[in-house]
Specification:
Structural class: alpha/beta
Number of strands: 13
Strand order of the largest sheet: 1-2-4-3-5
Radius of gyration: 21 Å
Helix content: 40-55%
Order of helices and strands: HHHHEEEHEHEHHEHEEEHHEEHEHEHHHH
Number of helices: 17
Strand content: 15-25%
Bound molecules: NADPH dihydro-nicotinamide-adenine-dinucleotide phosphate
């Protein structure tokens, strides 16, 4: 059996009931087959793939807190410090009821390659909790965040592990966690990114993942002889990534016509009204029904099991920006049938393996999240640089660095796909380019 297959079987056997982790490992290992098989015995002898697929450290802990009724609640907290070969662990925290160890491991594994692709010195990690901030009061969210940090603080630090936001973790949650870290450690350091602008945050960090997604999409289209201006875009999600993807798409002259949350979706033939979407989601923290109520051109569709939501809308470009495995084979078929020619992932692993394969086979330009959503973590690394210098850069300075990083990422994966004889396969290009830097660093650092 080939070394790649052996390691994949080992991962499945040793990590039962973690399907998302298996899926992420399978996609990466399949892409690496050509690289590994060119020098299989050397990789096998060093057990490089085993080391790559086993986290350096997993921390799992109890998070007790008191709700507004005086009831004690208990949640499960996680931090997976996956790989520090090229820098301190870096990756977001996710607060969502679906969080479990397998999901955090899949996200942490993806983060290794994503962070490598940015060209910045950051290793891969991820964390989170099965806590649901939805419907909680600010006091409850604060009580939870303080309890979460009361354990997490001992495992992180500005030069060790620097978490950021993800689903369910925005500026409010980062603020509460930063306050608690500072209080326990008596240390004011850039231990979290995505901070508020008055206490060490970076301009353009809020916008970075969505903006970066569009910078990369624009470059991918340009290199394939297409222009983003005038194109119709289907977007899923209505959170941080989706909102700023929609905003930047409009600035580039495209027309995003959809967005969604976990209960329903919007089709707005006149194009999404970003100011209204921000008011509904960022200020009121309300459902999309409120968007539809305030906007006559918008149709609201309740989410129903078995229906395909935003992917049934006719579009040129699709940007999945909600969550993992939200775009399946049926969705991919609907997109192709409707003439969609490009898909770039804003979320982490939103497209199933079968859907990815179908899109690629049907000539759709496809960019995986570990490349196209890397703008968030890249700008987090720029926030770390500003914190170390004790300086703040202007919005334009950060935004132009972000744009350059995204353009470079696209060219790196494009070149890697060509070098290994898989031109246009940006999944393979991203995995190979991300892997080579990490593998070289791991080899140089010996058995560790
Ligand atoms: P947010 O919490 O801000 O928004 C998530 C959005 O997706 C919400 O509209 C949410 O709806 C929707 N959503 C979440 N889960 C589901 C589900 N199971 N079904 C349908 N809709 C769902 O998160 P972000 O925008 O920050 O993150 C979105 C994706 O982007 C995630 O995959 C994340 O890992 C990835 N990402 C985020 C980065 C960042 O900088 N924030 C960086 C790189 C990747 P509802 O409110 O109803 O739950």
């Amino acid at each position: 059996m080939s070394y790649v297959d052996e390691v994949y079987e080992l991962v499945v056997a040793k990590n039962p009931a973690q399907p998302e982790f298996h899926q992420a490992v399978k996609e990466v290992l399949e892409s690496l087959r050509v690289v590994i098989e060119a020098d299989e015995e050397a990789y096998r002898k060093e057990a490089l793939l085993e080391r790559l697929t086993v986290p350096e450290r997993i921390v799992q802990f109890r998070v007790p807190w008191v709700d507004d009724k005086g009831q004690v609640q208990v949640n499960n907290g996680f931090r997976v410090q996956f790989n520090s070969a090229i820098g301190p662990y870096k990756g977001g925290l996710r607060f969502h009821p679906s969080v479990n160890l397998g999901i955090i491991k899949f996200l942490g594994f993806e983060q290794i390659f994503k962070n490598s692709l940015t060209g910045l010195p950051i290793g891969g990690g991820k964390g989170g909790c099965d806590f649901d901030p939805k419907g909680k009061s600010d006091r409850e969210v604060m009580a939870f965040c303080q309890s979460f940090m009361t354990e997490l603080y001992r495992h992180i630090g500005a030069d060790t592990d620097v978490p950021a936001g993800d689903i369910g973790v925005g500026g409010r949650e980062i603020g509460f966690m930063f306050g608690q870290y500072k209080r326990i450690r008596n240390q004011y350091e850039g231990v979290l990114t995505g901070k508020g602008l008055t206490y060490g945050g970076s301009l353009a960090r809020t916008e970075a993942t969505g903006y970066g997604l569009l910078y990369l999409t624009e470059e991918m289209l340009k290199c394939n002889g297409k222009d983003i201006a005038g194109k119709t875009i289907a977007v899923s999600g209505a959170g941080n990534v989706a909102i700023y993807a929609i905003q930047k798409a409009q600035q580039l002259g495209a027309k995003p016509v959809t967005c969604s949350d976990s209960t329903g979706w919007i089709y707005d033939a006149e194009g999404i009204d970003v100011a209204l979407l921000k008011e509904v989601k960022e200020v009121k923290r309300a459902r999309l029904t409120e968007y539809a109520a305030a906007r006559p051109s918008a149709e609201y569709h309740e989410k129903k099991a078995g229906e395909h939501g935003v992917w049934t809308v006719k579009c040129d470009i699709a940007l999945p920006c909600a969550t993992q495995n939200e775009l399946d084979l049926e969705d991919a078929k609907a997109l192709v049938a409707n003439g969609c020619f490009a898909v770039a992932e804003g979320a982490n692993m939103p497209t199933t393996l079968e859907a990815t394969e179908y899109l690629q086979k049907n000539g759709v330009l496809f960019c995986p999240g570990k490349a196209s959503n890397a703008g968030g973590v890249a700008t987090s690394a720029l926030e770390m640089s500003q914190n170390s210098e004790r300086l703040s850069w202007t919005f334009e300075e950060v935004d132009s660095k972000l744009q350059q990083i995204m353009v470079n990422i696209f060219h790196n994966l494009d070149e890697a796909s060509k070098k290994y004889g898989m031109e246009g396969d940006y999944v393979a290009g991203a995995n190979i380019a991300g892997f080579l830097k990490v593998a070289t660093a791991m080899k140089a650092q010996g058995v560790c």
